[in-house]
Amino acid sequence: MRRRTLIGQAAVLAALPARTAFSRPTATPDFAALERSVQGRLGWFAIDTGNGRTLAHRADERFSTASTFKILLAARVAQGVEGGRWRWDDEVALHKSERVPHSPAFDRLLPKGRATLAELVQGIIVESDNPCANVLLRHCCDSPAGLTMWLREQGDTVTRLDRWEPELNENVPGDPRDTSTPRAVAMTLQRLLLGEALSKPGQARLWADLQASQTGLKRLRAGVPGAGWRVLDKTGTGYRGAVNDVALVFPPEGRSPWVVVALQSDSRASTDELSAVHAEAMRQLVRAWG
Q1: Residue 23 above 50 pLDDT?
Q2: Residue 238 neighbours by CB distance under 10 Å
């Protein structure tokens, strides 16, 4: 199995632009070539918050959000804490019947029979825990539709959540449920994580959880040069090639952050191969914007 995965990764990388060309700046990343390398769709929207420039590809097409919605849910919880509706140390009861696949944090917390909002948010961001997300959706939004209503209040008229984990990862062609567009997600993340929708302390708490997550090491994080660069990201992975990553990218020397949203669909390539597309797209953005 590992041999087949490595062969597949080699095939994808062979189809990507040669690394020897990385030293030659390009005006525009070739997202179409990246799509062809895995025979899928790549949705992309990046914002340089320092000068307002943007870079888009399929920016207004709908893609399954998969677990990237969890950073939006975490921001909803943070805003509720700031508004006095609840506190980070409020405890929520946990029940074995709530367990669904991918539950690393939930399984650790379940023996206590309860968890704080802070623990649940950390679980959905750091480990992308699914039952923790469902618990928060019930407690803080009443339902997935409640998160959608809150997003409308934040000015996002596109992003929607309709189902619980793990059904929301189905990604059926043409189904608008549990989808958004790269542009909409990027604009909402900018408002929530960098704008005035949350206080600086609230943003800092979410930034810390994003930084602690290890799920995106092969995706957008793998595409920055290294020294001096920092990437805070939330991944999502669903069916039919829904391999996603959304990030705040901090260039070196105190430059303003970038908001980067990369959503994929329709490819039959492996998760590792699609993660390599994220990394290469990020490398091309860095070359284009420096």
Answers
A1: no
A2: 22
Q: Examine residue 7 and state whether it is found in any structural domain, yes or no.
A: no
Phi then psi dihedrals of residue 285, to 5 deg: -65, -45
Helix (H) or strand (E) holding 209: helix 200-212
d(CA 88, CA 55): 37
Domains: count for the chain: 1
* Tokens at 44, concatenated: 């992309």
Catalytic residues: 67, 165
Is pLDDT at 20 greater than 80 in this prediction? no
For residue 144, the 8-state DSSP code is H
Q: Which amino acid is at 5?
A: T
CATH number at residue 160: 3.40.710.10
Range of the domain at 203: 24-289
Tell me, what's the pLDDT at 15?
A: 52
- Residue 10 counted as domain residue: no
**Does this model's pTM top 0.70?**
yes
pLDDT in tens, 216-232: 999 999 999 988 999 99
CA–CA gap between residue 129 and residue 109 (Å, rounded) = 12
pLDDT digits (tens, 9 = 90+) for 137-194: 999 999 999 999 999 999 999 999 999 999 999 999 999 999 999 999 999 999 999 9
Cα 96 to Cα 220: distance, rounded to the nearest angstrom = 35
Task: Write the CB contacts of 72 (distance below 8 Å, at least 6 apart in sequence).
Answer: 147, 151, 159, 188, 192
Q: How far apart are CA 232 and CA 210, in angstroms?
A: 5
Give the containing element (helix H, strand E) for 235.
strand 230-237
Question: Please, how many CA atoms are within 13 Å of residue 50, restricted to the half-sphere of its CB?
Answer: 13
The length of the chain in residues reads: 290
User: Residue 3 — pLDDT band, cuts 50, 70, 90?
Assistant: very low
d(CA 232, CA 129): 18
Q: Which amino acid is at 86?
A: W
What is residue 47's three-state secondary structure? strand
